């Protein structure tokens, strides 16, 4: 039995205010036809057959979707649509009840309706809300489908096609919205072609783009459908003629006649229960029962995609390659081309039409040439298909179509919003308008532009943005409007005031909360500064904005950018404002410290900061300057830390002073006092200490304490602390602080412990982070760590040049780096030329003594002894033994048990070779026995093996 025969046998019923006529496939409420999708109606027909009983969900799926396999999500989706048709979803649930784990039931008494009371004609409700008007009987006539055949595969829209197919079985009016060129028409036609069988071949496309008079919308539909109407051609007349038809009607390009189209569709929805409308428009129809589907751009590769091959996984790239290949049969993507293609797709926001234009150019010019010229996109992307609609033949024409239909007030608002390089808020948008533009006016304008797909919501509620292509177009309009300079000034002044507020909040608010409010403004900051320092800008605004924005650059680890901006502001300031200069000099000193600036330049900036801070009585900046000077000092570091301590008045500042003193003791070689100070800082972790904003780095005390613990012979505790510190820094997402944790703690401790797999992971992470954020200050340390790792893996050929080059750069950096792996360098040099190794170690010992970096001297003496022993010159053994004894004594004095173990191991080998095994064993066992952990580390395993031999 066919489906239509089955429906003829089902009785008409009534429940609540509703009447259901299965034969006519009609649901009424209080005599007025309701709009309901086909599958939702099928579900209701099954439920009314067994009122009050639970209909198993498997039965519903089997009968309603007999032609296709779907999951329970589809059933839930259409039940929701049914409930909406029966009222709002909440009241609809009074009729259609869900029985968890089983199915659904109709929870209302059902009564039969005599067939003589069934409607002989189908009525519809006029838009004016008057009484239902009976439809005239019109002999059924076949409507031939005019859907065009697809000429190419639809790329990246499989999920959208499936979703829209489901929507059109649940809703009778679906509108595809989105900006020009997003692919609404192509997507609608693909969906319509797929649904033709379910509409028994009756599917028709009506193109409204050429209409100049909105009143002609009904005539356009009637003409395409071949309807024979008498009298005035109106929406009502079309609806009466189509009352008995089952039809999928595709209305394309409704935006310029949206009001008339909305009236037509609403009339069809009321009067034609089996007509489904799929519309495309740059704004919704805004009628009752409409489902608005916003067509998203194609997927574009993220800016920092590590694996170039993954670029091919994104639908925008697939479309670009497909279209380019169609125009140039020999086109083949090379690795360098993929990077260019990814950039093109990002700049074009994943808009398919724009990508097709770019692909057409790439077929002749190549992707890399197109990528270079993409910023001038409106001149470059002009190669549309000759048969395309006029507005789709160039990128500019596509946007002209949208812009020219905007009211003047919305055109003006769109132009002004183009000044925002990033997203914007209502407050920001209002600030760049005229002084008499109220926030409410701006809100209305933004809402209208959003509905017309010219503005997109960005991330959190209350923030919007223009797609890059639309912004480029609107900027051209702004430039030609005569108000560009006025709008740019208002923009820069607004962000000057915004960042002044942000600067004041930076120390008072949690970092993540502060960044959530201000990190998204980085592009607007850059745009405001570019204007302020341009020939037509206002330098005073630029200087104030630069000084206020320093915390944002710090939090985002944009150190090189901060340096360039600060140097420009200082040059323009020329000493005319002491307070602004103090803030800028502090920012410059910190920037130079973290991008590899010369120590003299850093010292000059910090010294000037201290002078200005003292003259202004600005204690906070005095502390910042002392910290900066301490960071670059060696012999004077402890004195500067104590000076900071004397000036510190708050508990937080006293903790920072403790940390500085502890670090200074560590570098000098006093590990016991270093540990006492650093542990005191950690014990008071509940006291909030902001290191990032004030000192541009979250230099956690644990990074140095982990080193102290390793030196004191607690390698397991040291490694665990370093690992926790790295995870903490990763969670904070501050690149500079993460590099510090890796460079001072995790990387060297993993290498010292001989855990080469862990060291490889950490050094790789260090290299990736410092490179991505252009933190050039860390590059020598990064190269040094990777060089040592290569040497420890036995690759002298690759490791030695890398480590040697790194040390040439490390000569000019602050304490802590200069001698980190000098021992490995000297040993490796000695393999090739003993004199070179000895010279290197002698120089290192002299420099360490001169700079008071005593923490490494015991190890340097040990390496010198090893090189002398291997040299084998006359008296070398005595000289080596003397070096080992000095190393042992110094390490014991410094409480550096790990250095002491290395020295004892070297001494034991020397004594063993002199056939003094008893003495060797006694010396080594005396040190080895003092360890309580770390027995799987390289040094302890080596010592244990030697003891077993002895």
Describe this structure in words.
Helices cover 59% and strands 6% of the residues. The chain is α/β, with parallel strands linked by helices. Among the domains are: 118 residues, Arc Repressor Mutant, subunit A (Orthogonal Bundle); 137 residues, Rossmann fold; 89 residues; 216 residues, Serine Threonine Protein Phosphatase 5, Tetratricopeptide repeat, CATH 1.25.40. The strands form five sheets. A five-stranded antiparallel sheet has the order 4-3-2-1-8, covered by helices on one side. It is elongated and about 120 Å long. 49% of the residues are buried. About 3% of the residues have low confidence.
Shape: elongated
- CATH class value of the domain at 734-949: Mainly Alpha
Gyration radius, to the nearest Å?
Answer: 38 Å
Uncertain runs with pLDDT below 50, 5 residues or more? 121-141, 386-390
CATH architectural type of the domain at 734-949: Alpha Horseshoe
Question: Structural class of the helix and strand makeup?
Answer: alpha/beta
Work out the helicity level. 55-70%
SS element count, helices: 46
CATH superfamily of the domain at 734-949: Tetratricopeptide repeat domain
The biggest sheet amounts to: 5 strands, antiparallel
What portion of the residues fall into strands of 2 or more residues? 5-15%
If you average the pLDDT, what whole number results?
Answer: 85
Total count of strands:
17
Strand order, main sheet: write it out: 4-3-2-1-8
End-to-end Cα distance, whole Å, is: 97 Å
How is the CATH topology of the domain at 734-949 named? Serine Threonine Protein Phosphatase 5, Tetratricopeptide repeat
